[in-house]
Amino acid sequence: MKKKINITTLGCSKNLVDSEILATHLKKFNYEILFDAPVNSAKIAIINTCGFINDAKKESIDTIMDFVAAKQNNEIEKVIVIGCLSGRYKKELKKEIKEVDGFFGTNDLQLILKTLNAKYYENLLGERIISTPSHYAYLKISEGCNRACSFCAIPMIRGKHISEPIEKIVQQAEYLTQYGVKELMMISQDTSFYGKDLYNKYSLRELTEELIKIEKLEWLRLHYLYPSEILEPVLDLMAQSPKICNYIDIPFQHISDKILKSMKRGHSEKSIRNLVEMFRKKVPDAAIRTTLIVGYPGETEKDFQKLVNFVQETKFERLGVFTYSEEEGTSAALLKDNVPKKEKQKRMEEIMLIQSNISLEKNLQKTGKTFKVIVDRQEQDFFVGRTQYDSPEVDNEVLIKKDKNIKIGNFYNVKITNAEEYDLYGHLV
Ligand code: SF4
């Protein structure tokens, strides 16, 4: 009887890919893999933690304690903790939570396998089991980050930027599309920087050109772009190729020059506005997704108003707003976190209210039009899918009237008949 391992993944899609790669080696070594299953579903539990911001750390600790409790009740035998929180606070966690059988970092794949007496397979030839629905998957193109944004702990946790060779990424994409994946989300900490470390030149366009040659790949989506003019060649390719989703995920974080300087982002209000203008000109229908931080140390009412005006003027298709969270060891942690918690919350809510109106306005403009939609799942009375302007889990969804011809994982043309802030309604045509 195969021994079961339950892998629970917290945090971002990069962590998800790390869990899937670990699972691929373990499955090859004859373990049965469960993803995010209830606590006592398997004798061995692996928790892939997130250590990005305080809320994420708390969620990781709570999850570890759930599994430790199950071990104390003899429901499970082994608890292994991996990922960012574990990598960052290994010593402290080891002292605090003695019931855990092992703490590992983000670069300890072989050590983890050894602890489980499992083999590390030198060359998987792109093989990877996925935990997402079988028609889409995440494609991690690099590890780490060379930038020094003042509020961010990722370079401390994940280390320097290391690009995967183009051949290896294409090999994995070919493998995944052979097994039914039609949509790939290209992810990293800093997608714009791809190849600079490995080929000594920015190579995101070259990589994208190779990936869209894969016949079975229908949609390629670019995530985590860093604001920089080097993106122009990629935008040109996006404008030409129907396979690259007209979707630009690019965190701007703020718009006030004073705050951008303190954040060490390396760009200005002017360069950000020029980039948005370039995106709108080169790919007019593209959905621009960005994230912003409010309540950063020293953010005055005037700085915040600049951000409000920027959001109102730019009318982003997709927007996420975070309240500043002081992170130990970052350069921003040396600054006085002087915006009260309540005020941070108020600023976030104010921008999200503006954004919900913008999102409704843009969604209403889609009624009467027909869009190519990929179907992700079935609900009670309808199917749920996404257009090329929507990434899984984070963006809008299309609720499609039930139809016996619909199969999950396929593409259909859907006519939009109604819209809300973050959902569209429609039927097959
Ligand atoms: S680009 Fe900045 S925010 Fe993004 S991972 Fe790197 S340091 Fe962090």
Mean pLDDT: 96
Structurally, the number of domains stands at 3
The portion of residues forming beta strands comes to: 15-25%
Helix content: 25-40%
CATH homology superfamily of the largest domain: tm_1862 like domain
Residue runs with pLDDT of under 50 for 5 or more positions? none
User: Ends: how far apart?
Assistant: 48 Å
Whole-angstrom Rg: 22 Å
Assigned CATH class of the largest domain: Alpha Beta
Q: What shape does the CA trace take?
A: globular
Q: Mind describing the biggest β-sheet?
A: 6 strands, parallel
| Total count of strands | 18
Bound molecules: iron/sulfur cluster
Number of helices: 13
Structural class: alpha/beta
How would you classify the quaternary structure? single chain
Second CATH tier, the architecture of the largest domain? Alpha-Beta Horseshoe
Give the structure's gist in a few sentences.
By secondary structure, the protein is an alpha/beta fold. 34% of the residues lie in helices and 22% in strands.
